[in-house]
């Protein structure tokens, strides 16, 4: 069975077509084929798989949302490149896993001045479920975000690849200040000393975006409104994304109970809400230039 | 959008934030007539700030040859094509600034350079405008021209980079107007790279965040001029502080040259960011080209510049260039010397209007050698 949530559904106007397609569908349908419900019902499983192609995901019912261009905060998206996103959820004792799927013919995983990465993010309220602004929350009702990026997936799968010689194999350089070893001075090995790190300003400043090592390609963040996005000191989420046949399949797994107060609590038989954002790096999507969908109810068994 | 006063445009303009001028504004004057493109400034800056991995194409300071030099490639030509033509009427700009021409969903009109456009820092170097006919160089004054344009961040009063940052990770210091990117908060969106009309914000592919000229603020805080200024062998640069409009002081060398004598002009003021690096225009370049580049005050600036040899106070201000590492807050044109004073109003430099002439004997009796006639 597949559920479809439209933009109109969020304001109480359920499209007749969606309603007509809802209910009575077989479990064999693929995401995007229709459906009328607007809630994601997480299914219990023994262990939430991080592999987006694990068969266990077939037990969860995908919900498809019609993505909208972000048009409130600068910079805005003028044209939707990713029209639909499918989401389904599995839970085990310790983890909530959400499988996100969308079509994107161009796999964008490089970061250069003119190259942007594909990505997806989920957002959950940390305060009042009904009063939280889905657009980055507010001081009274902040939000939790988990953000996966294709470029970070490359970091995890193949080692940190945004190095000068990865993009420019013939690039020669003399030794950098305080660098260790020899040419080509790979960033993960040659810049270990504090003095060498001083010449990597973002790294020296402790910017999470500049991390040289990344265990999982996902970042946990918190926001209390536009421009307040902040990295969690404790990073507990896991993720894995695979691009296959013109489609991204990304699993983001959140711990259900952690010491970090800035994480959502996800107890049994609870109702949560989750919003989505998708970036098409090949289309120059970055920052607020994204497709998004506001809160969808997420029921945990 | 807020309405802010841009004195360089002679009018109010739209800007995403309220007017918040700093207490005093970091400002520079570059004399293009004296620059020889030796790139000592570029090297000094690079050695000091951007010698790390990922900063290979980051030049907080560069010197490009106009009209065919650019870094990144064709940066001004590309923006002009997007911005379209404007005009000046009685020193009021009638066209649209980058903020007023912002496309839907954007804070400012800009473009993101392609990676390849950063590949040739010295493209167009020493290339002249037009052709030189055979023998022209031996026939007196010729019409071919080029000049060197040294460029750093303009620490604009209304920065395009700052306006476009969705993170608000870029800030302008209220104490001195230096524009900085918070390296701990930037998320590498490159909105600033796109919005800076001067393309003086760079993306670091290794740290994955953006970087820009920091105005050598550790030196500024010690009362010293920045590296690019101190190391300039042509003595083309002077760094100081520009007062708020209406609070100018004639004994402040920057105020005097920019506001009082109007001999130094902003680069592409029509962009609307109110840049704070001021250029003494090259005297030999066609005026229409200079007008596009420095605005409507070019003729007056050049005429004033040419009067410096007989204008003692103007000469005094210009002799302060490159003669002290200290930042000068006051100057005086004394009878025989130009004198500069630091923040504590202590004399920091004294430069004679006329360099003393020493005549030595042709034969050095001590060493028993004849002296060669060297300069």
What would you note in describing this structure?
The complex is a heterodimer of chains A (301) and B (375). With 301 residues, chain A is α+β, with helices and mostly antiparallel strands. In chain A, 12% of the residues lie in helices and 29% in strands. About 11% of the residues of chain A have low confidence. In chain B, 18% of the residues lie in helices and 20% in strands. Chain B is built from ten helices and 19 strands. In chain B, the strands form eight sheets. Chain B has a four-stranded mixed sheet. The radius of gyration of chain B is 22 Å and the shape is globular. The chains are: A alpha+beta (301), B alpha+beta (375). At the A-B interface, α7 of A face β10 of B.
Beginning-to-end CA distance, first to last residue of chain A: 18 Å
Note the run of SSEs of chain B as H and E.
Answer: EEEHEHEEEHEEHEEHHEHEEHHHEEEEE
| SSE pattern of chain A, N- to C-terminal | EHHEEEEEEEEHHHHHEEEEEE
Structural class of chain A: alpha+beta
Unreliable stretches of chain B: none
Any low-confidence stretches of chain A, pLDDT <50, length ≥5? Answer: 4-37
Quote the beta fraction of chain A: 25-35%
Annotation, overall tally of beta strands of chain A: 15
Work out the oligomeric state of the chains in this entry: heterodimer
Largest sheet of chain B, if any? Answer: 4 strands, mixed
- The backbone outline of chain A, from C-alpha atoms, is globular
Q: What is the makeup of the main sheet of chain A?
A: 8 strands, mixed
Q: Percent of residues of chain B in helical segments? A: 10-25%
Rg of chain A, Cα atoms, Å: 20 Å
Biggest chain pair contact, residues each? A-B, 45 and 40 residues
Average pLDDT confidence of chain B is: 96
Figure out the total of helices of chain A.
Answer: 7
Could you give the order of strands across the largest sheet of chain B? 12-3-14-13
């Amino acid at each position: 069975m597949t559920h479809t949530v439209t933009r109109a559904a969020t304001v109480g106007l359920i499209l007749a077509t969606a309603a007509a397609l809802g209910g009575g569908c077989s479990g064999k349908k693929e995401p995007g084929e229709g459906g009328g419900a607007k809630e994601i019902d997480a299914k219990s499983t023994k262990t939430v798989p991080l592999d987006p192609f694990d068969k266990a995901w077939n037990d969860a019912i995908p919900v498809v949302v019609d993505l909208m261009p972000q048009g409130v905060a600068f910079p805005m998206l003028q044209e939707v490149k990713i029209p639909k996103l499918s989401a389904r959820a599995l839970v085990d004792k310790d983890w909530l896993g959400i499988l996100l799927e969308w079509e994107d013919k161009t796999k964008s995983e490089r970061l250069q001045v003119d190259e942007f990465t594909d990505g997806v993010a989920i957002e959950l309220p940390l305060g009042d479920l009904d009063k939280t602004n889905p657009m980055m929350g507010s001081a009274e009702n902040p939000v939790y975000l988990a953000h996966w990026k294709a470029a970070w997936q490359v970091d995890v799968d193949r080692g940190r690849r945004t190095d000068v010689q990865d993009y420019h194999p013939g690039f020669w350089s003399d030794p950098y200040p305080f660098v260790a070893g020899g040419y080509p001075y790979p960033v993960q090995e040659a810049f270990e000393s504090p003095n060498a790190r001083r010449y990597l300003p973002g790294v020296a400043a402790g910017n999470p975006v500049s991390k040289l090592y990344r265990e999982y390609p996902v970042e946990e963040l918190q926001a209390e409104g536009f421009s307040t996005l902040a990295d969690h000191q404790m990073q507990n989420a896991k993720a894995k994304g695979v691009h296959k046949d013109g489609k991204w399949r990304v699993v983001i797994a959140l711990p259900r109970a952690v010491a970090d107060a800035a994480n959502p609590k996800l107890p049994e038989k609870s109702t949560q809400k989750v919003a989505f954002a998708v970036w098409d790096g090949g289309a120059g999507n970055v920052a607020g230039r994204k497709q998004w969908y506001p809160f969808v109810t997420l029921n945990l068994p | 959008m807020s309405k802010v006063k841009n004195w360089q445009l002679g009018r109010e303009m739209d800007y995403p934030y309220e007017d918040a001028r700093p207490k005093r504004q970091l400002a520079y004057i570059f004399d293009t007539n004296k620059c020889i493109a030796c790139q000592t400034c570029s090297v000094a800056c690079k050695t000091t700030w951007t010698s790390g991995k990922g900063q290979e194409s980051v030049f907080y300071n560069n010197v490009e040859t106009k009209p065919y030099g650019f870094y990144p490639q064709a940066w001004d030509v590309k923006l002009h094509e997007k911005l379209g033509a404007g005009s000046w009427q009685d020193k009021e700009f009638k066209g649209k600034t980058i903020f007023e021409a912002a496309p839907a969903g954007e804070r400012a009109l800009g473009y993101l350079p392609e990676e390849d456009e950063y590949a040739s820092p010295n493209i167009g170097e020493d290339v002249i405008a037009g052709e030189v006919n055979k023998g022209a160089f031996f026939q007196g004054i010729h019409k071919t021209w080029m000049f060197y344009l040294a460029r750093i961040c303009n620490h604009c009063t209304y920065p395009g980079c700052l306006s476009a940052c969705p993170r608000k990770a870029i800030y302008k210091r209220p104490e001195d107007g230096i524009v900085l990117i918070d390296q701990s908060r930037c998320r590498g969106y490159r909105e600033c790279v796109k919005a800076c009309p001067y393309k003086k914000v760079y993306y670091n592919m290794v740290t994955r965040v953006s970087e820009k000229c920091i105005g050598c603020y550790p030196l500024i805080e010690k009362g010293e001029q920045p590296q690019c200024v101190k190391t300039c062998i042509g003595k083309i640069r002077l760094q100081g502080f520009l007062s708020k409009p209406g609070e100018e002081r004639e004994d402040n060398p920057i105020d005097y040259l920019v506001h009082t004598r109007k001999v130094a002009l902003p680069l592409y003021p029509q962009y609307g960011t109110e840049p704070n690096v001021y250029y003494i225009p090259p005297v030999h370049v066609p005026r229409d080209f200079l007008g596009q580049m420095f605005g409507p005050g070019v003729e007056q600036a050049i005429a004033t510049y040419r009067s410096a040899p007989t204008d003692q106070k103007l000469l005094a201000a210009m002799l302060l260039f490159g003669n002290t590492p200290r930042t000068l807050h006051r100057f005086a044109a004394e009878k025989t010397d130009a004198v500069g004073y630091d923040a504590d109003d202590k004399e920091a430099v004294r430069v004679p209007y006329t360099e003393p002439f020493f005549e030595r004997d042709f034969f050095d009796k001590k060493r028993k050698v004849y002296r060669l006639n060297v300069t």
